[in-house]
Amino acid sequence: MDFLRPASWEEALAAKAEHPTAVPIAGGTDVMVEINFDHRRPEYLLDLNRIVDLYEWETGAESVRLGASVPYTKIMENLRAELPGLALASHTVASPQIRNRGGVGGNLGTASPAGDAHPALLAAGAEVEVESAARGTRLIPVDEFYTGVKRNALRPDELIRAVHVKKADGPQQFSKVGTRNAMVIAVCAFGLALHPATRTVRTGIGSAAPTPVRAGAAEDFLNAALEEGGFWDTGKIITPSVAKRFADLCSAACNPIDDVRGTANYRRHAVGVMARRTLTWTWESYRGARPAPEGAA
Amino acid sequence: MRVNFTVNGRPQEADDVWEGESLLYVLRERLGLPGSKNACEQGECGSCTVRLDGVPVCACLVAAGQVEGRDVVTVEGLAQFARQRAAGGCATGACGTPLDEARRWQAEGTGPGTGEDAGLSPVQQAFIDAGAVQCGFCTPGLLVASDELLERNPNPSDADIREALSGNLCRCTGYEKIMDAVRLAAARRSEEV
Ligand SMILES: Cc1cc2nc3c(=O)[nH]c(=O)nc-3n(C[C@H](O)[C@H](O)[C@H](O)COP(=O)(O)OP(=O)(O)OC[C@H]3O[C@@H](n4cnc5c(N)ncnc54)[C@H](O)[C@@H]3O)c2cc1C
Ligand code: FES
Ligand code: FES
């Protein structure tokens, strides 16, 4: 095994081009487990810890450009206002020790259907910025990034530079089912974001299909129902039958498996429950935050 | 490969390090510092917790090559680290814990609860006084994590303590005495101030 220690982003891209089989290592919280248990013996480890750009983030007008290695702890501490869904999801990852090292770049690299960042990224709207020495930068919509179980759209010579996550324009929620509050891989997870600016609702489902997915049909139904009923203007309580239909469609978007953490049926059911709850929570804050109608006390 | 880094305030060099090796292995097997424990090697138990550039991490999940040029504090250096912090830094320029001392490190004095002269950090003393140590396997990781919590947050709520220690498993105590120990260390500190 060789240990490559590029000091800059350019050096890292050059190293990845020269050794396409090199395994990047950022926080190491996925990679080191595999090496410790001899599940993986890469020819080259490509250390990303010295590349300071990957630990920085910039807040723009529309989105946050989040460096691939920014640890979850920093997201929780610094980006709660801009990226509430991702901050909530970050807080549910493992333990402080893991959150101090692991980040979204590694979560995307692993592309596990159970990765907690994914539902939040899908719901908020995000693009993955990847780069290669040969072809430069491309932006991959996060919906297209996950290509199969633990597979992603990265080419062998590419590295993840950053994730551009849309700044929240309304309330966001993240919900996760597990046996306890810390150190738990999701049985299933759900992210939901209200986007009052475009009058849309977006979702993300974790651990209930081969890849993280959005509940497209559920979103379409809800967007139409909210528009037709004038809900965005009046801020009235969402009709229970609408919430129920939305939850059912979210369940239907799942394609889960039975495994040690839970059965497929349980996952479908739990996703429906989380969909209804996160919709209620976010809608309540949306109603609460709206300016009071004129003349009202 | 060779790895140069700072351990407990002193520069160290580890030779013949395999590229896939963890920081935990380097500390225990190459530098002879077995204080950081190895129980799971997968980040689940926290018994290998050390500070890497001040940040608590699982040493079993840091690749050895990643610590080149960086600063590590282990449980063996914790007492000295806490003394230096209390003194507001290193005045003499000869601070930290040398490797041979760290290897032999143990509390001075005899028996548990011997008090001020034992050379323990406040958190270590509190763990003994509160009866938070049974088999002791989880203790080094818990000490490093608790010490960092109190450095950051001198007056933690119970929820803060549970959160900060949520990555450290203990199979013996049932955690109540560990909670007591951290509360005790915080209370003693606020009395001093
Ligand atoms: C005890 C424990 C509990 C955990 N609990 C959770 C949990 O609750 N939720 C959760 O989502 N995850 C969990 N994980 C998994 C892990 O912490 C996350 O997936 C984390 O986001 C990985 O980030 P990292 O920087 O440590 O990745 P690394 O291990 O460094 O890398 C992970 C993968 O991404 C690739 N990679 C990293 N950076 C880049 C880059 N810039 N460009 C291209 N490829 C890259 C690597 O080659 C590797 O394939 C847990 C892990 C452990 C050990
Ligand atoms: S040995 Fe590192 S967390 Fe268990
Ligand atoms: S005292 Fe035995 S594991 Fe904690």
UniProtKB/TrEMBL annotation, chain A:
GO MF term (any one): FAD binding
InterPro entries registered for this protein in UniProt: CO_DH_flav_C, CO_DH_flav_C_dom_sf, Diverse_Substr_Oxidored, FAD-bd_PCMH, FAD-bd_PCMH-like_sf, FAD-bd_PCMH_sub1, FAD-bd_PCMH_sub2, Mopterin_DH_FAD-bd
Keyword field contains DNA repair: no
Chain ranges of the FAD-binding PCMH-type domain: 1-170
Cited SMART domains: CO_deh_flav_C
Tagged with keyword Flavoprotein: yes
PROSITE patterns listed in its UniProt record: FAD_PCMH
Pfam (any one): FAD_binding_5
Source organism superkingdom: Bacteria
Record keywords: FAD, Flavoprotein, Oxidoreductase
Protein name (database record): FAD binding domain-containing protein
Species this protein is from: Streptomyces actinomycinicus
Lineage start: Bacteria, Bacillati, Actinomycetota, Actinomycetes, Kitasatosporales
Automatic annotation (TrEMBL), chain B:
SUPFAM superfamilies membership: 2Fe-2S ferredoxin-like, CO dehydrogenase ISP C-domain like
Domain annotation 2Fe-2S ferredoxin-type: ranges: 1-78
Keyword Metal-binding attributed: yes
GO MF annotations, alphabetized: 2 iron, 2 sulfur cluster binding; metal ion binding; oxidoreductase activity
InterPro entries tied to this protein: 2Fe-2S-bd (IPR002888), 2Fe-2S-bd_dom_sf (IPR036884), 2Fe-2S_ferredoxin-like_sf (IPR036010), 2Fe-2S_ferredoxin-type (IPR001041), 2Fe2S_fd_BS (IPR006058), Beta-grasp_dom_sf (IPR012675), Diverse_Oxidoreductases (IPR051452)
Database matches in PROSITE patterns: 2FE2S_FER_1, 2FE2S_FER_2
Keywords in alphabetical order: 2Fe-2S, Iron, Iron-sulfur, Metal-binding, Oxidoreductase
Name under which the protein is recorded: (2Fe-2S)-binding protein
Native source species: Streptomyces actinomycinicus
